[in-house]
Amino acid sequence: MSPERRPATGETGAAVPMSRDARTRRRREEIVAAAARTFAEQGYASVGMREIADAVGVRGASLYHHFPSKEDILHAVCLTVTREPNEENLPLLDAAGTPAQRLVALVGGHLRHLHRRRTEHLVGLHEMAALTPAHRAEIDGYRRHYQRRVRDVIAAGIRSGEFTVPDARLATFAVLDMLNGLSNWFRPDRDLDLDTVVSGYVDLVVVRMLGASRCPSPSPE
Question: Does 100 share its domain with 58?
């Protein structure tokens, strides 16, 4: 059993039962991950709730208990690559350090999250049109917020003289497009490992694209 799936243990070493809320969260995560793989393999339009239930190994009634529709599952998939990065990555932009240092940390966090959520990201790119207008608006809102926060840091770097690009908005689109492109080509079984890719992307983004005189180390904790 992998460490993240191992039951929690108390001081005596006995397994501590998961709370009902924790079990529900885990089951929802399992459904979203299995659905993303199924959508990626077969296409959203070709997949029904029965196929998703089979992929998770649950009965249809159990699946409907967690998600009332297939579209709600797709919405949850899209949240893993929009709301989740807002929650996990944007705090890196609030840390101490110069704009360049904070952007270095953001590039690393963004790429590592994207690698972990590669399937979900590709599904979101190809199947976004199937979302309801309300869900699409929510997803777009998270994306715009993320873009705005990155733009603000690049703009701060331009004001401080660290970055030499003339347009923070245009630079933001270029940086995020480059980072998101990782999901199209990177595979862990190829010659490059993720740490090497992160290091290379940091240099490409901060020094070569944004014009910093050198690539700073992230600010210490």
Answer: no
**pLDDT per residue as tens, the chain (221 positions):** 334 444 555 555 555 677 878 888 898 999 999 999 999 999 999 999 999 999 998 888 889 999 999 999 999 999 999 999 999 999 999 999 999 999 999 999 999 999 999 999 999 999 999 999 999 999 999 999 999 999 999 999 999 999 999 999 999 999 999 999 999 999 877 778 999 999 999 999 999 999 998 878 766 55
Domain that holds residue 200: 79-209
3-state secondary structure 43-72: CHHHCCHHHHHHHHCCCHHHHHHHCCCHHH
- Kindly report the pTM of this predicted structure: 0.87
Same domain membership, residue 156 and residue 188: yes
What span, in angstroms and rounded, lies between the C-alpha atoms of 101 and 162? 10
